[in-house]
Design brief:
Strands 1-2-3-6-5-4 form a 6-stranded antiparallel beta barrel. Helix 1 packs antiparallel against helix 2 (137-166) and helix 2 packs antiparallel against helix 3 (171-197). Mean pLDDT is 81; it is low at 1-16. The protein is α+β, with helices and mostly antiparallel strands. 42% of the residues lie in helices and 21% in strands. The protein is elongated, with a radius of gyration of 25 Å. Strand 2 (40-51) and strand 3 form a beta hairpin.
């Protein structure tokens, strides 16, 4: 079978034919279809690049171009019907799997990962709009902090899922989230100090008592941690 080639522009660059942006994910699937002999065939797959209309699936055994297949999301148990648009033998640039188009477009089928990634892009667009409208820089800073937190969590969620599928240790990502939480808590603490110095916090401000008790508990635990660190033996390099 002759491989199909993507159309190119006048400068030789490949023309993108997708109608919407694809997002990198790692979604485990079960695929099933009817083989040439009429028998049902099942195979495991992992969705790698997807959007609401379809995506690319990584799989070792796959159906022919034009086949109609059923996809089952292992994580949500949801199913969807799809058509096979390309295989490694039918289109240049397709390897280790197939490209499918969902019969009924849906980004919810792929799970929470794509929802988070779409939200990150929408937040970035909103940030640009707010900046263009000359919003108060303090509010813009709050927005940027929130958007950065969403981006960090999005990256961590994708990484955790990837490690889960591969059976790899995830302690480094958990540690990354913890370090990011400490960084955000430090910045928030400095902002609260600034609010106190500026007189924006008084006895009528809601949550002050709860905040004080939280600070006390956190300080007690941090003191214990720092004391243990001080008593740990120091191994100098030889």
């Amino acid at each position: 079978m002759t491989k199909g080639r993507r159309p190119t522009s006048s400068d030789g660059a490949k023309v993108e034919r997708r109608r919407s942006l694809r997002f990198a994910v790692a979604v485990p699937l079960e695929t099933s279809w009817c083989g040439p002999d009429g028998k049902a065939v099942k195979a495991d797959a992992i969705a790698r690049q997807v959007n609401m209309r379809g995506g690319s699936l990584e799989m070792a055994n796959y159906p022919e171009v034009g086949s109609r297949i059923t996809l089952t999301n292992f994580l949500s148990a949801e199913t969807a019907e799809a058509r096979v648009l390309a295989t490694p033998s039918s289109r240049e640039g397709v390897s280790q799997g197939i490209v499918v188009e969902l019969v009924v477009p849906s980004d919810k089928f792929w799970g929470v990962s794509i929802q988070v990634k779409k939200t990150v892009i929408e937040l970035h667009s909103l940030e640009q709009s707010l900046l263009a409208e000359g919003i108060d820089l303090r509010l813009l800073g709050e927005f940027r902090d929130a958007a950065e937190f969403v981006r960090t969590v999005s990256t961590a969620v994708s990484g955790l899922r990837e490690r889960q599928l591969q059976g790899r240790d995830d302690n480094d990502l958990v540690g990354l989230l913890t370090a990011d939480r400490i960084h955000r808590a430090t910045n928030l603490c400095l902002e609260v100090i600034s609010d106190l110095d500026a007189g924006r916090v008084d006895h009528d401000t809601k949550g002050v008592d709860e905040l004080y008790r939280s600070f006390e508990q956190a300080c007690d635990r941090l003191k214990q941690l720092l004391k243990r660190r001080e008593h740990q033996p120091f191994n100098s390099p030889r």
